[in-house]
Amino acid sequence: MRESLRLQLFLNIFLGLGIIVISMSYTFYSSMKIQTIVNSQFRKEQFYQKLQYEISEVRGPLLDYLSSRSSKALAALLIQEQTLRNMVPEQTPVYKSSYRLAEREIFFMLTNYLDMVEQAINMKRGRAINEYTQIYEDMEKMNAHIARRIDSISLSGIREQLTAYESVIEASRVLQFHNLLTIIFAFLFSITWMLFSISKVTNPMHRLAQMAEELSTGNFDIPDIHISSVTEVSAVVEAFNNMKNDIRRYITEIQRQKSIEQGYMNEKLRNMKMEQLLKRMELYTMQAQMNPHFLFNTINTGVQLAIIENADKTAAFMENLATFFRHNIRERKLIVPLRHEIEGLRSYFYILEIRFPHTYSFSLDVQEDILDTCSIPALILQPLVENSIIHAFKGAHTGGEIGVRVRKEENMLLLSVRDNGSGIPREVSDSLLKRYTRDQEHTSKVMGLENVIQRLYFFYPRNREVISIESETHTGTEIIIRINLEEEPCIKL
């Protein structure tokens, strides 16, 4: 059964501390015993010294009373007598010890001494001079004898206690030596037990470190570690083995998934190439599809101008018309400089102003310093203007306003086409802004707003706000294109 590391540490600590506490407790007990012996002897010495003092205090009041029969002296004598009687124990059992027998003898002599004091007082009251004189002399003799016995018993008590004190001191020295040996043993035992416990932890950890080095080199085929250690370390070893085996399985699974993903990416690349070709064909189709009615009207307008006006204006008109056709039909690039797109738009505006001199007004606000530094997808502004001409002013003959604004704000290029036409219903604008997927069927006609929206989604798939429509009924519509200049279009041919 595996032992817990915590349990081993607790046993190690408590065992060492227990041995030290027991040895220190015994040492403390021996010291207290020595103090008890010394204190006992000192208390007895104090008692005998006080006893001698109280006996000597009897002589003065007794002599005054016998000589003058003073009531004050009698009162002091009686108080001193009572004090001495209180110092005599009520019972004095018989002991075998000579020291205890001597104490018992002193108490008997003290009792007789106090009885003689009472006899002397009574003889004084009876005016028996000879009798209380004799009693006083006997009391003096007994007083001297008691003093000698007290000195004798004090000396013998000191000798008796000294013998016990020496034996205790000797035993204490032996105990201290044993305590020192016990402490040394406890220290060595604790160190040995601790080293053993540490080795049960460090050895598996060393094996784990070696296995970790092998794993860092990519070798996951090394065998598992099997070590019987404490519960916590064994749990770590087992978890490490499981982790190594799980990583090995994960690597195998990742390699298998990688091969599958590689095939998927190859297929996706082929699909993207097909989609590129599809988009290019859509652009070329849009460039090739010109509104025959528009061509007829514009050419007819040129013919009429040639008849009723001078050749200069007709030449300018035809030059702009040729520029516009060249811009829309001959250009095969998907991404063009901003200047190229704006020049085509200006030619388109000139043609529209000639066609609709009193119906529409056009404005173009472009930040000139960005014309040569920014690039955009080809043909994204002219279709939006054409969409406004066709749909925004149905039935209107005057008052139409169409404005194009191009500006740069930090890293964003903002292009907006705004009109004051009838507006686009919300459900229609939401439908136009939906992204087409490859599974969806949509019209093959590539002119107009819908084509611009889907091409922008294709060029900038990560920009969710590349184009937006803001419209209110009978107020107008603004289409805003936001191109992040730091983001490369997904196709650049």
From TrEMBL:
Organism expressing this protein natively: Marispirochaeta aestuarii
Location, primary (coarse class): membrane
Signal sequence residues: none
Annotated localization: Membrane
UniProt keywords, alphabetically: Kinase, Membrane, Phosphoprotein, Transferase, Transmembrane, Transmembrane helix
CDD domains listed in its UniProt record: HAMP
All residue ranges annotated as the HAMP domain in the record: 199-252
GO CC annotation, single: membrane
InterPro entries: Bact_2-comp_sensor_kinase, HAMP_dom, HATPase_C_sf, HATPase_dom, Sig_transdc_His_kin_internal
Domain of life according to the entry: Bacteria
SUPFAM superfamilies according to UniProt: ATPase domain of HSP90 chaperone/DNA topoisomerase II/histidine kinase, HAMP domain-like
Pfam family, any one: HAMP
Stated name of the protein: Two-component sensor histidine kinase
TM region positions: 9-29, 177-198
GO MF term list: phosphorelay sensor kinase activity
